[in-house]
């Protein structure tokens, strides 16, 4: 899938990229906000992962904020892409919020599958809302910046 648009905000501190209905926002210096929307397929998942890996490779760590409030269906192929590429990312913290009960259960299963596939250099937390997710990510930023590396499941 081709990236449909890339728009830099006037402050230059944020980059927003859309992938069909979904989008990824990079908030300098280390935070990626991922917003999958609607039916999330393999093509979109692959494009988003490749963009994330390319942007994150030069960073010592990344913080990921996954907003699932507008996610509809996630195809099995998309789930496979998302759970098979974690080893390509630097140490990270992933805070997930939003989504239906089904989406939340699916995201927990995907986090476990990713861990089983070797993506162990990360923390994952399912947050009740965006504000709590961002506060948790701020705590993890301090730990990562201090050299603490994730080791929990």
From the spread of the alpha carbons, the general shape counts as globular
Mean pLDDT: 87
Q: Beta-strand percentage?
A: 25-35%
Strand order of the largest sheet: 1-2-3-4-6-8-9
Number of strands: 9
Number of helices: 4
User: Low-confidence spans: pLDDT under 50, at least 5 residues?
Assistant: 1-10
Helix content: 25-40%
Largest sheet: 7 strands, mixed
Give the H and E element order: EEEEEHEEHEHEH
Radius of gyration: 14 Å
What does this structure look like?
This protein is 37% helix and 30% strand. With 153 residues, it is of the alpha/beta class. The strands form two sheets. It has a seven-stranded mixed β-sheet with strand order 1-2-3-4-6-8-9, sandwiched between helices. Strand 1 (5-8) and strand 2 (14-19) form a beta hairpin. The chain is globular, with a radius of gyration of 14 Å.
Question: How do the strands and helices of this protein lay out in sequence?
Answer:
Elements lengths: L4 E4 L5 E6 L2 E6 L3 E5 L2 E3 L1 H15 L5 E6 L3 E4 L1 H9 L7 E6 L3 H16 L5 E6 L2 H16 L8
Parallel strand pairs: 4-6, 5-7, 6-8, 8-9
Antiparallel strand pairs: 1-2, 2-3, 3-4
Quick description:
The chain has four helices and nine strands, in the order βββββαββαβαβα.
Jot down its keywords.
153 residues, alpha/beta, seven-stranded mixed sheet, 4 helices
């Amino acid at each position: 899938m081709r990236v449909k648009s890339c728009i830099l905000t006037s402050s230059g501190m944020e980059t927003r990229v859309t992938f069909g209905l979904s989008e990824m926002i990079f908030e300098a210096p280390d935070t990626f906000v991922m917003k999958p929307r609607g039916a999330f397929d393999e093509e979109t998942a692959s494009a988003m992962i490749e963009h994330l890996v390319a942007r994150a490779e030069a960073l010592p760590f990344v913080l990921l904020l996954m907003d699932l409030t507008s996610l509809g269906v996630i195809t099995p192929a998309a789930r496979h892409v998302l759970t098979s590429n974690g080893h390509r990312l630097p140490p990270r913290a992933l805070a997930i919020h939003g989504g239906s009960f089904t989406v939340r259960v699916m995201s927990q299963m995907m986090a476990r599958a990713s861990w089983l596939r070797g993506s162990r250099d990360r923390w994952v937390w399912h947050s009740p809302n965006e504000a709590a997710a961002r506060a948790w990510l701020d705590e993890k930023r301090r730990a990562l910046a201090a050299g603490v590396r994730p080791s929990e499941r």
